[in-house]
Amino acid sequence: IHVSMDAGSSWQNINQSLPKDKWISRIQASSHVESRVYLSLNDYRNDSRVNYIYRSDDYGTTWNTIGTNIPNETINVIKEDYKDPDILYVGTDHSLYISMDAGQTFMRAGKDMPHVPVHDLVVQETADHLLLGTHGRSFYKTELAPLRDLKAKQNQNVALLAELSLDYDSNWGKKRRFYDPVKEPTVDIPYYSANPQEVSFEIKGKDGKVFYTGKQQAEQGLNYFAYDITIDPKKSKDLLKWYNKT
Length: 246
Known about the structure:
The chain is mainly beta. It is 7% helix and 38% strand. The chain has 2 helices and 18 strands.
């Protein structure tokens, strides 16, 4: 690894304090701190899955190990959130990991993310999405706003990360071809759970009346509750009264 401080006219070797003979899988300059850079190495060519992730805050003069709680999985890529410097994304040969504390600890992405090699990550600023390129399962994307909200609410036992939002679609109840499934309204509600536990939900109208109650077994971390706009039969009359008043 070399660094140039004069636009490439001269270069200085900065890997003396790093493990020798490892493959440099990614170097990522910070967009928040000029002197900060992230580095990931791997050693799978020697049949080793030990992970190596480092951060330097002085242009690579010294390196600090981060991500020590990530399992021994080959590290392919590390990226920094473009809004919050404390949020980092790491792709390994097994999964996606996310840190909310500048790399001190990482958590694995949710159950919808399969155990596949993540070879590249793109933080898409315009749409505010994280895009993943994998080996064997194509591409994935996730919204970044709930992750930032998650960071702010990690001290709560259960926290809603976004309000229910769904626009009417005239295709609900229809299907394009006779063998297609009927299109039904659904919305995924993100929430945080500090521990694996059963979580209860209430869907309310503007006047506070409860139209739906449900439960879900949550995992630790970020979860999604899939709501299909169902109304509890016993509460349908309340819904009609509320609708007729609005």
